[in-house]
Design a protein that fits this description.
Pus10-like, elongated, 4-stranded antiparallel β-sheet, alpha+beta, two-stranded antiparallel sheet, isomerase, tRNA pseudouridine(55) synthase activity
């Protein structure tokens, strides 16, 4: 199954989060989605993947983040579109932390597009900068002339594990 999810909580990891064997949060996006879906699919196991990651304290808004859940040895494999819509509604009604959209069943070969998109993705950021000491108009003009800026970012210590 594939779809998109929005994450509204700043205290919800994407996947179960353990540091040195200790669980850091009680649930995750993966668990909230897969628990309800697997009640119907009844798979032996599952694999959750998404196009990119977000930090636990970051919401995922807008059109949502693409994801795929691969169900391993499912007992129920033939679902109608109506059943898929009902599953999506069940997930959305079960929590205020995450919402699903565009849930659908796809072939395994279609999953590769999600992975390809993750490798080719670029990010665009917008920043509001404030200064208590004023600003230099010439420096701002120079910045405004830039069409692209490459930002090199180190992994924050809080997520380095």
């Amino acid at each position: 199954m594939v779809g998109r999810y929005n994450k509204y909580s700043r205290e919800l990891p994407q996947t179960p989060w353990f540091v040195e064997g200790e669980r850091k949060q009680s649930t995750s996006v993966q668990e909230l989605l897969s628990a309800i879906l697997n009640n119907t699919i009844k798979a032996q196991d599952l694999k959750f993947s998404s196009s990119g990651r977000e930090d636990v304290d970051v919401r995922c808004l807008g059109v949502g983040r693409p994801f795929v859940i691969e169900f391993i040895n499912p007992r129920h494999t033939l679902l109608t579109q109506t059943q898929v819509v009902v599953l999506q509604c069940a997930v959305n009604e079960s929590t205020h932390l995450v919402k699903l959209r565009h849930l659908q069943i796809v072939d395994k070969k279609d999953v590769k597009y999600l992975k390809e998109g993750e490798e080719e993705k670029t990010k665009t950021y917008c920043a509001l900068c404030l200064s208590t000491q004023g600003y230099n108009t010439a420096a701002l003009d120079k910045l405004n002339e830039l069409s692209e800026v490459s930002v090199e970012q180190k992994t924050p210590l809080r997520v380095l594990h």
